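Form 7-S
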Amino acid sequence: MPPLTNSSAVAAETHHANRGVAFGVGAYVIWGIVPAYWPLLAPAGAVEILAHRIAWSLLVMVLITAVLGRWAGLRTLSRRGWLMVTGASVLIAVNWGVYIHAVNTGHVVESALGYFINPLVSVLLGVVVLREKLRGAQFAAIAIAVVAVVVLAVDYGRLPWISLTLACSFGLYGLLKKTVPLDATASLTAESIVLAPIAVGYLLWLGPAGTFLDHGAGHALILASAGVVTAIPLMLFGAGARRIPLITMGMLQYLAPILQFSWGVFVKHEPMPPSRWFGFALVWAALVVFTVDALRSRRRPRLLAPIE
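Output:
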């Protein structure tokens, strides 16, 4: 096979990157429109939905892992690795459960806020846990976000606990995932293995009080589809992350909360008084500062690099 010319190589690289962007957009769009899915599982409650999501995710991920041949990483995972997986599993279960509860109780906008502030929480965790240095712009973004949370707490008459729980649980989840030497597919399979016994045990204990067998085949199929709804965006995310820079994935991540916010405001017509709009505007301002700083910090090493 003849070697690629420069133009062919550039075209191939562009195609590779475009596919990565498409995969990333697909993942975040699915995560953004999933608030339309969880209410379809009524009358199942949030805990029952979570248990089904975990149980069916295990089945889906075992099949995918077997097809892709990713069992080697799981078999050689150390005891410390499994401990980290267990911690990550608990955090993602909390995140999933709170998110399902929020959507099914009319708090889509508040859940979107959690995913808007998640990048800032991740930076703060990096400073507190990993002792990373905080740049001036990052400090400003976090300070603006703190003011926004105060404004929204006054507006809600309480702390936006749904937002803070989602942001902190997912931020800590991401922090633990950095310590697990598994790819996205094997990692989710491991997490499902850890959580599935508890989920299946809960469903067996629930027995006739559950909704799986008593509301028709359609309801049972929709509950079972929770495993696919969980796995597909994670597969797309993993495929996208391998093809495009992390900074690009970082830009795409805002698609999900934007779509969630739009669903809550324009479809579900959740209340948005002026004070709440102001709080969200502060969050968006913080994200603009954060994003611009991230872009500049990425370009700076290139500008300082010697010309060869």
